[in-house]
């Protein structure tokens, strides 16, 4: 199967790094371009504007550093690499970005959440697999 | 003294748990602290001591001050007419509607009914802001207008809370006169204190602002008013200075959210009675409905009058139906001063929390304006299909 545009959900977790490595490996033989998308989830129903702004600033800085590191890894492999940062709900943003950008593969790392969190909240992977407009690869690590 | 440390440790443990849950769940720490307080009151049977009351009171005052200081004066000036009209209507209609409902339908005493009206008249600037950041609307003129209207709405709430129950005597006159005298030069004085002594370990600028808050708070209370009234006004007048001095904002915020507001929000939850939620469920739903309908009646026609298209008008109205901080402050004021009982407090606080959640969910799901930046809509509604459109909504983009 030929992949030309690959979107990776990238939040700096071990799973997302593994997803990025897989995406780069898949991209190499097809000369595909890889896009890393980092989603800033801001708190809901806040009591102060500051809660929103601080969370956003914190994650923007964190993602900036992570994207620099990821860019170096991609450059070593000679892959065309782009980064995106968006505010929103992780699963929803991954799906809408994959659709809007007409990506043909979406790669995400499994969160590793199980037990209480997994049961009550489900995982981002569950939701993305259910709604994505393209092929989805969930990387276990 | 040993008892004080033990109590402080328990409250701080609850605050820490609330912080961790809020980070994990992506929900405001204030809401989780209220929930933790409900657990503390109903299960652990925690009690409130004099010094906890003091810390919680200071927390409410500093939080209110920070809320006032978050206004963007330039946006307010630019949208003065529509934001004044929408903000005033957003306050008056639910204030009178909820008070009338409490008095004539629920049969509450007059003072209790006024508290209901005040608590449900609010709009939560922070809740609205969070919703708009997610959709990108905060960067649009519509978003700025809505936020400015929210500040006007909350000013109405704070004025009502501060004046309706005040004793109309010489103390109130003194409070009004001194407040006016302090507010007028305060922005210049604050800027001067920051420039002259700012950025030192002894934090003179923080102490200067706390002095103003505490002194006017004392005078307000002495006049039978509420300390949050001058706090909000001080916040509004120094907002411009705060926009210039991010470091000062951060330091005050750290003090507030680290050591003061947890006591306030946990205390607010402590008095919520779970049996009263169950027995008053219908009344809670009714109050929430009254608030939303009153906002609809008051705000929606004005949005149309100011040439907002139908969908944007409905979205604006729904966002203006939210509430949280000032709603709980008003209800707690009523409980503390014996104006409402614990059951009524429970009904009001639960309705206020409901108003933080329900209108935002409806607005986000069905009424997101067409003017929202590309990529902000639900996947099914997305109008963008190309990469450049998608990129326009991203905060940042980079490439190799």
UniProtKB/TrEMBL annotation, chain A:
Residues 49-76 form a coiled coil. Signal peptide: none annotated. It comes from the Bacteria. It holds the Pfam family Usp. Keywords: Coiled coil. Residues 3-140 form the UspA domain. Belongs to the universal stress protein A family. This is Universal stress protein. It comes from Thermorudis sp.
From TrEMBL, chain B:
Residues 382-400 have a biased composition (Polar residues). GO terms for cellular component: membrane. Gene3D superfamilies: 1.20.1530.20. It is found in: Membrane. Signal peptide: none annotated. The chain crosses the membrane at residues 12-39, 51-71, 83-106, 112-133, 145-165, 171-194, 227-243, 255-278, 284-303, 315-335, 347-368. InterPro entries: Cation/H_exchanger_TM, Na+/solute_symporter_sf. This is Cation:proton antiporter.
